[in-house]
Automatic annotation (TrEMBL):
GO terms for biological process: response to oxidative stress. It holds the Pfam family GSHPx. Belongs to the glutathione peroxidase family. InterPro entries: Glutathione_peroxidase, GPX_CS, Thioredoxin-like_sf. The keyword Ligase does not apply. It comes from Cherax quadricarinatus. One of its GO terms (molecular function) is glutathione peroxidase activity. This is Glutathione peroxidase. Signal peptide: none annotated. Keywords: Oxidoreductase, Peroxidase. The keyword Oxidoreductase applies.
Amino acid sequence: MNVLQESFNNFDVLAFPCNQFGQQEPGANGEEINNGITHVRPGKGFEPSFTMFKKIEVNGNKEHPLYTYLKTYCPSTRQNFADTNRLFYSPLRNSDVRWNWEKFLISKSGKPFIRYDPSTKPQDIRNDILFLLQQKS
């Protein structure tokens, strides 16, 4: 996502850590999460050039209202859930984020435009970003 953040003016990548998927984000907010990113996953000294917010829940009974809003406009990218033994929330809903690194592209007016599967590579989002940046507000 760094490459997208650094490639466009008037475009921001916003990241919201979440520990609901395989408990892959157990760290406390701030330095502990940043150390995990830098040294573990993706590791190798990675430093995000985008804004990292505090950890939130994106699904279930304690779902953050931002994700309720995003999911209202963009259907899930997968029919099935990952191994439900590795999902740490309830209840399961069809609209749920399926795994870490699911992405939402938002228009200048704040409306969700499209939702990307966790496996979507940043370069596969580039044309959609260009399209939205060319639109009038």
